[in-house]
Amino acid sequence: MSELHPSAISINTINPNVKLMEYAVRGPLVIRAAEIEEELKHGVRKPFDEVIRANTGDCQAMGQAPITYIRQVLSLALRPELLEVVNCPSDIKERVRTLLNGCNGGSLGSYTGSLGIEFIRRYVQQFLGERDDVPSDYRDIILTTGATQGIKSILQLLNCPVEEETNWGLNINELKRAIDEAKEVCIPRAIVIINPGNPTGQILTRANMEEIIKFAYEENLVILADEVYQNNVYEDRIKFNSFKKVLVEMGEPYKNMALASFMSCSKGYTGECGLRGGLVEIFNFPADVKTMFYKSLSAQVCPNTVSQAAIFCLVNPPREGEPSYELFMEEKTKVLKSLKERAQLVHEVFNSFEGFSCTTIQGAMYAFPQFKLPPKVIELANERGMPPDQFYAFELLENTGVCIVPGSGFGQKPGTYHFRTTILPKIDKLKVMLEKIKSFHTDFIAKYR
Amino acid sequence: MSELHPSAISINTINPNVKLMEYAVRGPLVIRAAEIEEELKHGVRKPFDEVIRANTGDCQAMGQAPITYIRQVLSLALRPELLEVVNCPSDIKERVRTLLNGCNGGSLGSYTGSLGIEFIRRYVQQFLGERDDVPSDYRDIILTTGATQGIKSILQLLNCPVEEETNWGLNINELKRAIDEAKEVCIPRAIVIINPGNPTGQILTRANMEEIIKFAYEENLVILADEVYQNNVYEDRIKFNSFKKVLVEMGEPYKNMALASFMSCSKGYTGECGLRGGLVEIFNFPADVKTMFYKSLSAQVCPNTVSQAAIFCLVNPPREGEPSYELFMEEKTKVLKSLKERAQLVHEVFNSFEGFSCTTIQGAMYAFPQFKLPPKVIELANERGMPPDQFYAFELLENTGVCIVPGSGFGQKPGTYHFRTTILPKIDKLKVMLEKIKSFHTDFIAKYR
């Protein structure tokens, strides 16, 4: 008789942390969204004819065109034998030669150092130095397979239980409350700040950044600055400041604080999520800790060469006077201008809904509106053992095909309800999506009032 | 006065496991090799003029040419606007269209599902089914950023302390000794077997595989089959058998055992190490464990699309009659034939050295010769606090520029000494390298006899 081997692997013997973990952005709602797409394909009738995936910041899936410069470099770097034959701008060919010259055996098919290709790290040094007007050191810069892998590596190094930190708001009283709560279960080692903010879309003021830095100093926390949206800034009067820049400019004793900053080619005007290009700059990490960190990275072998090449393009764009400059600027400006328009539209429309309030979307690529829910919904959700905004999100998905992430997946003040939606659908589809949410919301509230 | 912030991050607060970990293939020898390369660049005089990196199986860094088919598909998939314009074989264009059709928004720049693109997983299903003549299910196949990430994910799921398992030999008595030793410190959950073998180059006989399977059954171990070298087989009379195939063909009760098998585009005839394409097939994992496993993968976002596209090419090569078939077969055959010649050469030459013995290199891309060391070397190494074969490896590197991995990095019988070298340098350089090792070894033994 066939039976599974009794104890080689079972739900009781696997890693208990795997059982506990939750990731709302790719959780049960997204699984259900995929099922609904399958159902639609097989002719199941729904009150809508497509799923709108507004749950992840997946730019190109939503129709954003890739930047030609990046694709030209990557494509040709994979086929260097075409360098002499194809007709393509000289600066592209120069970039490809530089890139391959830095690869072992002149090929993207070779392993690289565990920290990434050295000459690309030197370009990153220059890029960050120019951005912040503060010196960088390529020896403190590592390339990663997406910013996610960089963040995971740092968290692993710090031995962090991340659950506490990710919920933190940016009001100093709220930070104090959160750290006191954290201290009951662990020794807090780090504070993670996402700026421009995900899911909230805010860009921190310099004064607020200084407060956070002082707080981190007093509490002996390493600052982990997720700055992947640094190119997504939609207000002309606002300039992105990196935490490193602010901390250095604050002088003693803050300029000696330990910090790690994360950047990516998935967001901004590039939107190359699938290529998984990321980088980490560490700052003021003690030498012995760096040695251990770099050793731990070696066990991950090396980041994908194509993702490293994408970072190379990001930090080494066409310069004025180069043949690709004009097209590059045109494409970059077009993407950022369109995102800005959509940020404004989403903000306005959400604020016109009954019971909705949505703060200005200053940056990043999300709106995080707050909305009121009738007591009946809260009761019903409790009965089903799910947060009320998750109940809302499932109903929204089943009725309209719009997939968003409930605020409870990120953390929110008790008794408040939010969801995160990207602003990425193309303008026409975005309008349709907002109309669908409005109509659903009106019906939903009427039904449960 | 400037001083580092005292306790935000220090060697005493970081993850102790990071301090403990060792990875010989990318350890201190490799760091020293990189330093020597820098020294050579800056004109430091050495008894050699280049470092030969025989420490990793880095095919293209050693001059192996990429397979044109793969590069054509990847390159064009990154520039789909060229599909209508460029002159390239129709089967390449068809592959690119199929690939992009499976990507969100038709772009490699979009995120994919956490388990990889579904239609590629279906191609893997077909590929594995044909290879083993045993059915596969794409729902049990995940795409990963290199086989390394797949292995790490499975080890994390199983909550494995891997240190014990990796040392295991394949003699059943040795396995029993190792598991008894492991039981003193943990509950062993899995056995990792690399076949064809790294570093040893052996291909397990079917009888040996059956013994191992029976052993794993008795000990309730999940079998983790690292089968990334399955295309690197150099003896005509030997056929690669996957563990899944053997286990299924053994019938009850073995065919119900839990297994995970790993495959990659870094080895074999493709040698695309830098692209980090990997896949895992799990087999007989309980449904609830699979749910947890897939959930844990979602926190890694998704594998790089280019690495997934490389796996797509690997499992969907040009078929007979297609325009790319002839060139593909010519390139594939050339790579494998040349590796076979080098495997034979390295084996013969090592066995001609005094005090060396090297088993037949049946598969994979390494030789793992055993050699004798005089007592004086062992004494000296002990004084310096390093294993004798590491001392030997450092001396070899400093004197000849040849970088290999000492056997102590993999585990070996106490009192025996080995090193691992790849067979990847091109034939002329390989001969030079072997000559250098021979001459060094003769001098070294004479010096310490």
From TrEMBL, chains A, B:
It holds the Pfam family Aminotran_1_2. Keywords: Aminotransferase, Pyridoxal phosphate, Transferase. The keyword Transferase applies. The keyword Transferase applies. Its EC number is 2.6.1.2. Transmembrane segments: none annotated. This is alanine transaminase. It comes from Hermetia illucens. The lineage of its organism: Eukaryota, Metazoa, Ecdysozoa, Arthropoda, Hexapoda.
